[in-house]
Amino acid sequence: MNKETILIVDDEKEIRDFITIYLRNEGYKVLQAEDGEEGLELLKANEVHLIVLDVMMPKIDGIHMCMKVREIAEMPIIMLSAKTQDMDKILGLTTGADDYVTKPFNPLELIARIKSQLRRYTKMNGGMKNNEHEIEIEDMLINAATHEVKVRGSKIKLTPREFSILELLARNRGIVFSADQIYERVWKEQSFQSDNTVMVHIRKIREKIEENPRKPRYIQTVWGVGYKIEKD
């Protein structure tokens, strides 16, 4: 049985119930919301692994909800819409969606796309274990629930900000984050000459987790761009 939770956000109850039946038959846990506002509230209160999101909805539509989700989370988002024009698809994908399905759709195709996105997300997040709070990268284990980091079996003490930076990079392996992007994600405020602040925190993290901080294995510097943790 699957343990992932799927959030369906659509103002048409028939579509929500229709998708829910297929997902539950596949063993997924399902949450439903009738608009973007309710969807964001459910997202705050629950651990969600993927969102199926309609574009046209009252209050907060799918495009704006997608943008808000991307400010706080990285789980896959599949957009649903009756619109078929290329610009609508491009808009959905450029605001942070991972896939786009037009209505009417084959439910089996939607389920296949959901499974594909979940597999891809799990792989990109560095070998997340059955316990989705844990990220394993070589001989480093990060536990997002307990804020614990172990390297070669030894516990590493990180400050909350250091942990948040490490978790951000670990959950997005292969993606380069600029100092400004890291600052805005971790400090939750607009960046202003943040390069030195982020650089100091990166240096301290390396001193704690690396055998040789001058030749880091985990957090790599992409000169002139930012920082990343390499994929396998």
What does it look like?
The protein is of the alpha/beta class. Helices cover 41% and strands 20% of the residues. It contains 8 helices and 11 strands. The strands form 3 sheets. A 5-stranded parallel beta sheet has the order 2-1-3-4-5, sandwiched between helices. It has a 4-stranded antiparallel beta sheet with strand order 6-7-8-9, with helices on one face. A two-stranded antiparallel ribbon has the order 10-11. Helix 2 packs parallel to helix 3 and helix 6 crosses helix 8. The chain is elongated and about 55 Å long. The model has no long low-confidence stretch (mean pLDDT 85).
Q: Topology as H/E string?
A: EHEHEHEHEHEEEEHHHEE
Radius of gyration equals 19 Å
Kindly report how far apart the N and C termini lie: 28 Å
The counted number of beta strands is: 11
Percent in helix: 40-55%
Largest sheet: 5 strands, parallel
Mean pLDDT reading: 85
The fraction of residues in strands falls at: 15-25%
Number of helices: 8
Instruction: Provide the structure class.
Output: alpha/beta
Give me the side-by-side strand order of the main sheet.
2-1-3-4-5
Silhouette: elongated
Runs with pLDDT <50, length 5+?
none
